[in-house]
Amino acid sequence: MKSSKPLKVSVCMHAMNRTWQVKQTLRHNVMACVNHELILVDFGSTDGLDEWVRSEFTEDIRAKRLVYFRTPTPTRFHASKSKNLAHHLGSGDILLNCDGDNFVTEADLDRIVKVFAKEPNSIVQNFSGDLTDGTYGRIALTRKNFNQMGGYDEGLLPIAAQDYDLLLRGLQIGLRTVRISAVDKKPVLNTVSDKVPAGSKMDWGAINNINSSYCINRQKVIGPVRETQSPAWHGFLNLDAKKVIVEQPAARAAKVSDFANYPAKYPSDFMGVFNRLRAHMGANHSTPPKDLLNTLHRAWGNTCNLSVGNLAQISEAALRSGNPVLFCGSGLGALALAATGAKRIIALEPNRIWLRDMEFLRRFLGLQTLQIVLAPVKTDPGKSWYDFRLPSNFKEKISTVVYDRASGANDDTVSGLAAGLGPLLSPDFKIFIDNAERDSEKQAISQWAHVLGDLNVKIFKGDGAKRVALVSKSPPSQSRPA
What we know:
Elements: E1 9-15, H1 19-32, E2 37-43, H2 49-56, H3 58-62, E3 67-71, H4 79-88, E4 94-99, H5 106-118, E5 122-125, E6 139-142, H6 143-149, H7 162-172, E7 176-179, H8 192-195, H9 204-222, E8 232-237, E9 244-247, H10 270-284, H11 290-300, H12 308-321, E10 325-328, H13 332-340, E11 345-349, H14 352-365, E12 370-374, E13 377-380, E14 383-386, E15 398-403, H15 411-421, E16 425-433, H16 439-452, E17 455-461, E18 467-473
Parallel strand pairs: 1-2, 1-4, 2-3, 5-7, 10-11, 10-15, 11-12, 15-16
Antiparallel strand pairs: 3-8, 4-6, 5-6, 8-9, 13-14, 16-18, 17-18
């Protein structure tokens, strides 16, 4: 942002029914923003915030030291919507989020300006490092970048993780992340219950867990750009008694090419790569190419432990047999296998939150042949098992099993799973076990053999140092222990 003109920061405050906080911060922030701009959005407060602002800050509003907007429309707080509205009212070169309980100082703003003067394609987090003090959401980026990204994600639940999501999306388009840990004045002290909107049926921790997982999956599927879900807000600007409409700029026109000259290379989006895989398999009906699977693995991120080589082998086996596949665990492997054209896939998932997120992806991607079944790991002294029921319409034999040891599983879990699946397996079944170089997986192979009888075990190379075990029923003439 090379310019002889001083950069202006729009400090974007917002609040709903937090007058007791704003009364402590607003006067201080008005004084700190003498060379910048302060925005305050009253997001439907019913606790007297509007009356207090109009009484105490009339001169500041007239002198344009404070831009004030009140919308009576919302009945419940929504952090992303409230923040987006405040940011879209800002006219500065740089937009800084400032929750109603936060203070800013001239020194804070000077430090932020220095970063953008040197590198405009940055996303700055003015965060002390203490997750409990309320400074995590002090995020700044240029107005241009904020609008092109579409601002905060309004598709998330009303509170929690929207700042985390914005930071991740900034990284995704190649913005340079800069953290400024110096915070001159700590926020007004809050309790966890203060963060939760009235009437919420979940606590803050539960909402944060859901949003944190949900935002990552949304980024994988639709990338970093968000279409504004609230295109306009009706309300009152400054001291005007006439209702006005604040229109928010749409991010629909923003494309990946908008970010082509940014410092980091924009990564392939998961949705695009996934559709390439699906199109290839639809045209060729063959084993998926490893280079395409590798690209899909990179677009997914670091949460997939399944070897690409293993996935290719599994896909080939499933396509040859035409029988259902059982995935012990859900994730990229189950999604990718569904894209390759496997007839039917049952994925066992022990974690309810992850199951919900994967079910969202399954529906979004239109994967009709994939079914995800809740299968918590249950334990008793000396016994452990996946507690699951196959769908009532499941009548076929399973020809392919993918074993991925779930959190909480042990050798007894493997034994229990094998015992339960024995009658459901076709005579020519194949069991794929990733990370076969580990002692724990070697023990798992022994457990399968103990329950299912003589097995033929082949070990082949996976990704890097990984090894994959292919376990199948030994022919009578070649029977040998695993």
